[in-house]
Amino acid sequence: MLDLAIIGGGPAGLTAGLYATRGGLKDVTMFEMGMPGGQITGSSEIENYPGQGEIMSGMDLMQNWPEQCQKFGLKHEMSQVSRVTKNGDIFTVTTSDGKTQEAKSVLLATGSVPRKAGFKGENEFFGRGISTCATCDGFFYKNKEVALVGGGDSALEEAVYLSKICSKVYLVHRRDTYRAAPSTIEHMKACENIEEVTNVTVEEVYGDASGVTGLKVKSKESGEIRDLAVPGVFVFVGRDVLNEPLKQEDGSFLCDLDEQGQVIVDLKMKTSVPGLYAAGDVRIDAAKQVVCAAGDGATAAVNIIEYLG
């Protein structure tokens, strides 16, 4: 029986494995179908990770993490977890090939993925001018014009963030009203360099070998096409939380989630089910930054050791 089953091999899962094994847990397995590292390995440039003075790719940042985190006994099983259940004090982890393992505790660190808007050029230019992280990539457009697609709280908050870096932000939204909180809308409207481009559809993001050079939007009222010449497009149309392993046979979930499907945790990363923890982007109020996910993993591991002790 495992002391701890970690589901997910990104920064949260890897750090949890390091702290748990170094902290004395003997049987700890991390379930990750591919190579560990997480979504950040797809980022081309990172310059805001503490202690890393040079700009590097996500792959470069994460390359040494698996070896360090496995040094104290963390095992890596290349399997996808399909379901986690609990009977009494014991969890059962079922993988997609039908195999099961029992565990005294479980950490869910599967993360979330940005939802795609579905416009032409989105896949082609993702990472080459299209981004889903203003904190990560906003600085590269300092004193330049950018466009942001979305109309919820996150979109408006990120537009305000970008307005402090960029010379102008075009806020592109398919409706003429926003889904954000009134206070967030008021804050956005107070920014003089945010121009609202509403009641439009994104027809296309285009560019060249160097990346994005602009996007075209179409008015829903007149059908007029407007061309916005920008080198950067940020997309915030929601995220899909990877909470499938928590789904039970009857359609319910093993622990409490919020309306967006994010796992509700306290400051110790505890869920509503004793012995079940969640860390990183899968939890509520996650900052969606590598350093924060790693911190979550360490916090969870320290408290799992206490729980098992």
TrEMBL record:
TM spans (from-to): none
All residue ranges annotated as the FAD/NAD(P)-binding domain in the record: 3-297
EC class of the enzyme, as a word: oxidoreductase
GO BP annotations, alphabetical order: removal of superoxide radicals
Domain of life: Bacteria
Manner of cofactor binding, per the entry note: Binds 1 FAD per subunit.
EC number: 1.8.1.9
Essential cofactor(s): FAD
A cellular component term, taken from the record's GO annotations: cytoplasm
Reactions listed under catalytic activity: [thioredoxin]-dithiol + NADP(+) = [thioredoxin]-disulfide + NADPH + H(+)
PROSITE patterns (alphabetical): PYRIDINE_REDOX_2 (PS00573)
A single GO molecular function term of this UniProt record: thioredoxin-disulfide reductase (NADPH) activity
Keywords: Disulfide bond, FAD, Flavoprotein, NADP, Oxidoreductase, Redox-active center
Pfam family of the protein (one): Pyr_redox_2
Subunit details: Homodimer.
NCBIfam families listed in its UniProt record: TRX_reduct
Family the entry assigns: Belongs to the class-II pyridine nucleotide-disulfide oxidoreductase family.
Protein name (database record): Thioredoxin reductase
